Every structure is written in structure tokens, then in C-alpha cells.
Amino acid sequence: MAAFAYARTIHFPDTDAAGVVFFARYLFICHEAYEEALAAAGIPLATFFADTGLVIPIAKSEATYLRPLLCGDRLGVEVAPTRLTADSFALDFVLWKLPAAGAAAPKRAAVARTEHVCIDSRTRERRPLPPALAAWVDAATAA
Amino acid sequence: MAAFAYARTIHFPDTDAAGVVFFARYLFICHEAYEEALAAAGIPLATFFADTGLVIPIAKSEATYLRPLLCGDRLGVEVAPTRLTADSFALDFVLWKLPAAGAAAPKRAAVARTEHVCIDSRTRERRPLPPALAAWVDAATAA
Amino acid sequence: MAAFAYARTIHFPDTDAAGVVFFARYLFICHEAYEEALAAAGIPLATFFADTGLVIPIAKSEATYLRPLLCGDRLGVEVAPTRLTADSFALDFVLWKLPAAGAAAPKRAAVARTEHVCIDSRTRERRPLPPALAAWVDAATAA
Amino acid sequence: MAAFAYARTIHFPDTDAAGVVFFARYLFICHEAYEEALAAAGIPLATFFADTGLVIPIAKSEATYLRPLLCGDRLGVEVAPTRLTADSFALDFVLWKLPAAGAAAPKRAAVARTEHVCIDSRTRERRPLPPALAAWVDAATAA
Prior knowledge:
4 copies of one chain form a homotetramer.
Chain A: E1 4-9, H1 25-40, H2 45-48, E2 54-55, E3 58-65, E4 74-85, E5 88-98, E6 107-117, E7 119-120, H3 131-142
Antiparallel strand pairs in A: 1-4, 2-7, 3-6, 4-5, 5-6
């Protein structure tokens, strides 16, 4: 599988007054997994997300929420990139609720997908993905 | 139109290091508009989102991001409910970037949709929407 | 009184699994009141918080939490600036829990104080407050 | 030293439009370190922060911000509890900015302190710390 695995504990401020993680916060966790995958591919985060002429905003997101998450729950996140066009790619995420020691198998807590488009930050015109990012996306797409 | 309008200024902590509002934060703003619409329909927020036996989690979300939002930008949010089944409904959101005084017409900053399912918080089995919520959804669906 | 008043409803994602607003989130609300006060003084937010050579980070914060806040609660926030030195100022905040119609008087939910220092964003050396900000701070300090 | 160490990478949504971590978000990171320390002491998070009759809200916080934090920065957080009274304790935090491989020594990014009071969630009257929490606090205080 071409996916990257990121592990994360659910913290108290991730939760809301229903006692579980707020739906939009799952997407923050997905983005953390994306960042960890970039860092593991040697792409430096300090400059990647800053505006250096090119920016790579998220154009679409969708998520299906399958299980509630509680403070202290342990998550594993898979992230798999797919090339869409010369200037865009998608990320598919699976969030797994990891069992406590001795318990049953992991269960899916959510699945999500984001679409990313590379643009010139001044003209907002589409631009090809920068080489290091393209290499990461294409290696995973081919895997 | 069956939509509710909610107005909101973009604040500094809504933004990220790219200088604009983080994609998942648009969904927080959508939820604020949902809350204001419920309050305007006479549904008390203090108890609606607490676990009182019935909970109404979000099962799906999707969003298309059309324009970046900056600190100080003024937003208008429309929210329109649609009945799906006896125990579920959808909300469609349009986020409008409002012009400064004397400027051009509002432009769409994003559109989003969330799906909500009413369940028993212990058994996780589906339950009909509570009456006040059903009335609000059905009035808008019929409009 | 030299204070500025900002009104704000507590939203669901402001809360945590204890059912109330998370302590650090009170400081986000204080910052919103600071932004509204700046905007009311004619200082444009879109550029104020961006790095334009000068930045004005917060060097210290302190808060005392007096009452829990629930989803749907209505808050009023006072913010009063005080000049400290040529390159720094403080903000004192009072967060009032506003009563429902016909109910008793407002009660203090929290008090907070932040200290702000103006620096050159490259050298990190202290710089005098920019004129529009200094005018706002000094008018309030003198009031 | 009686402190607990927690390591954490700064993620993109931790940052704001000034390109650095928003001041109040440092306190979220402190709370994560507190949670990890509790978990390491065998105190289950899923129930600790829920309202089970006793709640332990934060009554005061203060922080001094010493260095900006960027996306991708690596932090180490020390947390040291101190007993105050039968029903309260304080936590002292030091946030260290960890150097990249081969770089200089860690530098302090912030120090913070929170005060916690145990109360009955219905009457809001003070109650002694529950035994497992008291044991953790007192072991560290005595160290």
C-alpha cells in the first residue's frame, strides 16, 4: 500500500460538549498526517506552507464520519496521494481507531479526501506542482 | 429562499501561516450559522448539542473552497435545511464574501453540505428527529 | 470608562467534553475583542496582523476564570488598553456573562490581561508603536 | 527533576497569519502535556475530563512567550505539578524549542503556569482532589 501512517492521541481540546471530537476537527488531524508525510519525504514544513510565490490551497474536502472519538483514544491515520493533473492532486485518508492492548482489531473512525491545486499566489493562475511534491505524489500514485 | 443569513467577521486566529482561513475552519463557521438558525427557530443551544439521550452527529461533510478569506473579511452565510429521511437531514451552506462599502457585489467564498443523523446516544440506533428540529427542517424544505 | 464593548455568542465548537468553554479559548475571545476595537479605531485588520516589517507579538498573558460558559451563552467583552513603554502596551479584558431577557445583572465570567511588544520582525529589536496604534492606546490610557 | 517530558511537532493549523503559533495555542499544547502526564500516571483520560460529579477546572493561567514557533518546529514540554491546598494544585510548564540534528542546545520558547481547583460539578463547592490525582501531584511535589 502507498499509504503513510501517522499516530495521534485525541486530546481534551479536540472534543466538544457532546463529549466527542467535533466533525471538522477530523480534517485538522488529516492535515497533520499530510504534514508528517511531507516531512518524511524530506519536504521542509517551515517553508512549504508559507507563501513563497506558489501556494497549494485545498479546493475541495469531503469526509464520512463512522465512529465517535473520545479524549484519550488512539488514532492511526493513513494518507495516500493520487495525481490528478499537472497542477493538482488528491489525498485519501483513513482514520483508524486503534484498540487498547489486548482488544480487537482497529476500526475505521472516518474516511476523508482533499483536493489540492498549485497556483501562483499573486495571479491565482494554476502552476505545475513543485518537483519535490510531484515526486512524492507520483511515487505513491505508481505504487 | 429558505435560507438563513448569518454574518461573521474573520478573526486573526481563524487564519493560518498562509495568511488565509484554514480550509477546515470554514466548516466551523458553517456550524456557527447552523447554531444561529436553530436559535432563531427557538431551539435552545445549551441543551440541543448536549447528550440528552438523543444526539444528532454529522455523518458526512463536503465543501468546495472558491476564494481565500483574510483577517478582517466580512462573511455572510446562508444555511438551507433539507429533509432526507425520518431520522436525517442535510444542510446546504453558501459563504459569501461581503464587499467593503461602495465595492462590487458579494462573491461566493465557499459552498458546503453536511448530513446529520439522529441517533440514540447509547445504542447508536437511528431515531426520528425531535419535533422542534423536524419542524424547522420541514418548514425550510417546503419553502 | 475607556473600555470597548464586544458581544459574542458561545458556539458549540468553543466547548469541550466537560460541556464548557476550554480555558485557553477565553483568550481567543479576548483577541477577537482586541481586533474589533482596532477596527473601530480605523486600523485595518488585513494588514495589522501580517508581517509588514513590524510585528506586535504578545509577550505575556494571564487570566482568572470565574464562571463556566456554555454553548448559547451571550458574552460582553470590555477591552481597555494601557501604555507601558514607548514600544509596549497592555490590554485588560473583562468578560461578562450577559443575562437572558428579564434575568439578573451581568456577572463576570473572567478577567484577563495581555502584554504586547512592538518589534522589528527580522532583528527582533524593539521599535516604537506605529502611530495609529499609539493614538488608540494613548487615548484610552488618558481617558 | 519532577517534570514530565512531552514532545510535539508544530503543525500548520497551529499557526496564524503572522506565520507563528498564536499565543493562546501554547496553552493548548501545555494541556496536551498535562494529559500525557496523567496517562503516564495511569489516570484514564476518557473519564478524567468528563463530568463525573467532580470536575477540576482551571482557575488561573499565566504565560510568558519567549520565542516564536513555526510550522515544523519540534517542541519538548516539561510539566511539574505542585500541591497548593487540599482541593487545588498548580502546574508549571516549560516549552523547549528543540534543535535540528547537529544544532545548538534547546531554547525556552515559553513558560506557563495553570492553577486547578477540584469542585462538585453541581454545587460548585470545593472538594478534595481524587486519590489518583492527589498521588500524582504529591509524588511530584515531594520529588
